[in-house]
Amino acid sequence: MSTQENGYRNKLNTVCDRQKWAFQKGECVPSGSKNQTVWTGQVYVNKTPFEGKGSSKGAAWEAAAKNALDHIKANNSGVVDD
Length: 82
Known about the structure:
The protein is of the alpha+beta class.
């Protein structure tokens, strides 16, 4: 997995560390056919779940981390750097 694929997860981990928030990677489950599997992954920030979907486990967790960062950015001014 490339560094770019871990970008949102790394950023979320850094934000959570700085804010002293709990961060945990949750489940990632497949759905759909073998040829068109869609993964749904979760991450948790202070036990609040954020979900994302992607064509691989890594992509699903990245999407979940991006959703968490977007939520944090919208609700906590100045916490997430651009």
